[in-house]
Specification:
Strand content: 25-35%
CATH architecture: 2-Layer Sandwich
Strand order of the largest sheet: 5-4-8-7-6
Shape: globular
Radius of gyration: 18 Å
Number of helices: 5
Structural class: alpha+beta
Helix content: 10-25%
CATH topology: Beta-Lactamase
Number of domains: 1
Largest sheet: 5 strands, antiparallel
Order of helices and strands: HEEEEEHHHHEEE
Length: 172
């Protein structure tokens, strides 16, 4: 296989990075927050199964448009295309007091009692409807014990055929 020569002023390394780095998918584990990149999102060439986390064993990775660096205290919630919770990662119990079983199947805004936004600017609804990220949204949630907690939410739409969301919740 012969590589095409780079344009004038670029080394092969610079040209390859410029050409392919922007198209390399970024993935993050919703459980342990391990970040990775993968060219096709599949476990192997022969096995068409989606990539799981090799660090903690979680069943799937969430694809992001850009790399994301969550805070150590951030917890992830994975939702389907209707905003219903499919899975929660480490940190959500510590942040909210809710266990995964308490949240599964419930709509994320209702289950966590998220507030602090105008009805037409619900970050979850905007991400689901328009497919755009909602970053650094300052919200409040109600903990399992009934207390109110101020949080920062980053909402990422899914870019696969299944749709859905990844909601990153960080105390502020």
């Amino acid at each position: 296989m012969r590589l095409e020569p780079p344009p004038d002023g670029y080394s092969h390394k610079q040209w390859l990075w410029r050409r392919y780095a922007a198209t390399m998918p970024h993935f993050i584990c919703p459980n342990c927050k391990e970040r990775t990149i993968d060219t096709d999102g599949l476990e192997s060439l022969l096995d068409r199964q989606a990539v799981g986390c090799h660090r903690c064993g979680f069943g799937f990775l969430f694809e992001l448009m850009d790399d994301y660096y969550p805070a150590p205290t951030t917890g992830f919630v994975v939702c389907d295309q209707g905003g219903r919770i499919l899975a929660v990662g480490r940190g959500i119990f510590e942040l909210t007091g809710y266990r995964e079983g308490d949240l599964m199947g419930h709509e994320v805004v209702e289950a966590l009692h998220l507030s602090g936004f105008e009805q037409d600017k619900n970050p979850v609804a905007v991400a689901l409807e328009w497919g755009v990220r909602q970053l650094d949204r300052e919200l409040e949630l109600e903990t399992a014990s009934g207390g109110e907690r101020r949080v920062k939410a980053d909402v990422f739409p899914a870019y696969d055929d299944d749709g859905g969301l990844l909601v990153a919740i960080t105390p502020r």
